[in-house]
Amino acid sequence: MTDTSASATHTASDFGDVVSLLKPRVMSLVVFTAAVGLIVAPVSVHPFLGFCAILFIGLGAGASGALNMWWDADIDAIMKRTQSRPVPAGKVTAHNAMLVGLWMSVLSVAMLGLAANWFAAAFLAFTIFFYAVIYSMWLKRSTPQNIVIGGAAGAFPPMVGWAAATGGVSIEAWGMFMLIFMWTPPHFWALALFMNDDYTKAGVPMLTVTHGRRTTRKHIMVYTVLLTPFCIGLGFTSIGGPVYFLASLILSVMFLRGAYGLYTRAEETAEADKYIAERRVFKFSLFYLFILFAALLVEEVMRNLSIGLENWPVVI
């Protein structure tokens, strides 16, 4: 009885470690934005095929996470934020992490091609390649602009979702891409401000390490300003509307206010108050993106209801 329980516990732990290898929190954001891209597309998709497409896009995101953990195992072991990840913690070997990432990459791309179309599958393959090779293996350790260029990897999922529905991309898909692409730098630089010691120890050339906190805060302000027209402008496309437009206005003002607060913040603060503002902006940025994509979903529901009411039979 005791041996069987111990074995079951060990198996469950191993499965949990593999799940952690896929970066489930990042995967959830990818799945959500990809699902929005698919749902708001102007082509109806059968619910089962749509579910399969999003599932395989999520698996592709997990594959990217596993490959990233395989490649970054050395620096993950140095940084406090990542020391508990499966590979540096010794729960999964780097070799196995690589195998999981490669097999899931092949599986997700092949199955997306069968469930949706091969254009979307090729797009997913490029997204995995971009995150694992362009960002993780090249940009992350070579330039302080790593997260600016590398942010494209996180901006592709809604385009892949759109492509899964339509077989191509359009101005609306590019609008969702630009929203995430321009959001990524201020989001990650806010994180880097209060995790700077980790990046310094690991030798990762984040902007905070190479140019200092003051310059990083200035860049957050600049990119938040640049983000604003893309955020609001999406409301004037076919997938936007009054709900999204109002949400984009309110959230943009709040994000700009937070970024300006960081920009004007004095470097010398009490230890107890250190990085509170940075953490607040980082957490808000997650809320910001979620609400904007949720607003796009609301707009789609309202459009469908409007069409349904127009077609509703009138009995006189």
From TrEMBL:
For this protein, what reaction is catalysed?
heme b + (2E,6E)-farnesyl diphosphate + H2O = Fe(II)-heme o + diphosphate
Give the record's membrane topology. Multi-pass membrane protein
Q: In which pathway does it act?
A: Porphyrin-containing compound metabolism; heme O biosynthesis; heme O from protoheme: step 1/1
- Locate the transmembrane regions by residue number: 26-42, 48-71, 92-112, 118-139, 146-165, 171-194, 220-237, 243-260, 281-298
Enzyme Commission number(s)? 2.5.1.141
- Keyword Transmembrane helix in record: yes
Where it sits in the cell: the answer is:
Cell membrane
The highest taxon in the source lineage is: Bacteria
Q: Which UniProt keywords apply?
A: Cell membrane, Heme biosynthesis, Membrane, Transferase, Transmembrane, Transmembrane helix
The answer to whether UniProt assigns keyword Nucleotide-binding to this entry is no
Question: What is the annotated quaternary arrangement, including any partners?
Answer: Interacts with CtaA.
The free-text function statement in the UniProt record for this protein reads: Converts heme B (protoheme IX) to heme O by substitution of the vinyl group on carbon 2 of heme B porphyrin ring with a hydroxyethyl farnesyl side group.
| Protein family per UniProt | Belongs to the UbiA prenyltransferase family. Protoheme IX farnesyltransferase subfamily.
- Quote the record's miscellaneous comment: Carbon 2 of the heme B porphyrin ring is defined according to the Fischer nomenclature.
Q: Which NCBIfam families match?
A: cyoE_ctaB, PRK04375.1-2
In its UniProt entry, what is this protein called?
Protoheme IX farnesyltransferase
